[in-house]
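Case study: Palmitoyltransferase.
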Amino acid sequence: MAPSGPRSIKRGCQRVLYWIPVLFIALIVAWSYYAYVLQLCIESIEDTGEKVVYLLAYHAIFIMFVWAYWQTIFTKPMNPLKEFQLSHSDKELLEREDRGESQQEILRRIAKDLPIYTRTNSGAIRFCDRCHLLKPDRCHHCSVCDKCILKMDHHCPWVNNCVGFSNYKFFMLFLAYSLLYCLFITATDLQYFIKFWTAGGRAHFRLREYLKGLPDTQAKFHILFLFFSASMFSVSLASLFIYHCWLVCKNRSTLEAVRAPVFRHGTDKNGFSLGFTKNFLQVFGDEAKYWPVPVFSSLGDGCSFPTCLVNLDPEQPSSPSGSSSASQSAAEGRQFPSKPLRESQSRLLTSTPSWPESEGAGDKDKKGASNPVMTIENEA
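Here is what the predicted structure looks like once written out:
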């Protein structure tokens, strides 16, 4: 019992340290608000119409940015349902077995009734020995949170939270609105930034001439550093946002982009990809009015995902189509989870998902060669 005290103190210190990046971002945002609203718009801009337009547009973007950031930070990551937890008897049975093959036989028996597609690199059932559960597809254990997170993308220190199924849409909106926030500040601050440098150059960095254009030196330095900060953040945010847009289009997480998921038929980096439109709707939902708003609208339950067993990527060899029909027949008459879902969510859980999508001729040809299904791998 003695080590529990130091361990709890260490864990508490770590939790405090984890909030430092979030506090840093909060201070930067608070300073940018002061610099833009007070020093630029109110103190420096003389034209009333320009001032009003800038303030209205700024606050609209600012509210959406802070809202999305808040949702990303404080939305709890979803954990696997109790159906994936081992029962007390299964735990005891698993602990009594010393051989790995015997343990795998027990896990295969349990996984037979669950919608589990993916395997380890060696073909074994994915099992978390810390949480004592069978990992659902796309679920991973976070060492920082010490939990299994559904559709885990990564643990982000800038939000002190795991980005996964429950808040991935919020994270995407956070990137989008923060990028828009920085670009807006850069664009509207540019003319005053140029005015500073031209005035400073003529005066050989003396402040007398510049003070004719701006009310005081405090506003000058705020406008200068605001432009530099917004420009630098824009570059980093743009690269990160573009990368995650690519992940959404491919229906991959950051972890899956680094290490492709393994199925019964082998490694398949596009195993969960259903086409651009379906991939987008899976993250943002099928109701367009909720796409730009930081409210949860993603489809599905996070434990099971439609999968395409035939790979459409020309870079990868096609997988055998026989496994698709075998898996589909094994899943007939079985539906997961048993609790009711919204109609928009249940589309991801049906054996033949119906998506509101208009496909081109090229996509129709690809559909003829593939069969996106939600199936359960049946062990031999």
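For the exam, be able to explain this: Strands lie at 127-128, 133-134, 140-142, 147-149, 154-156, 161-163, 262-263, 266-267, 307-308, 372-373.
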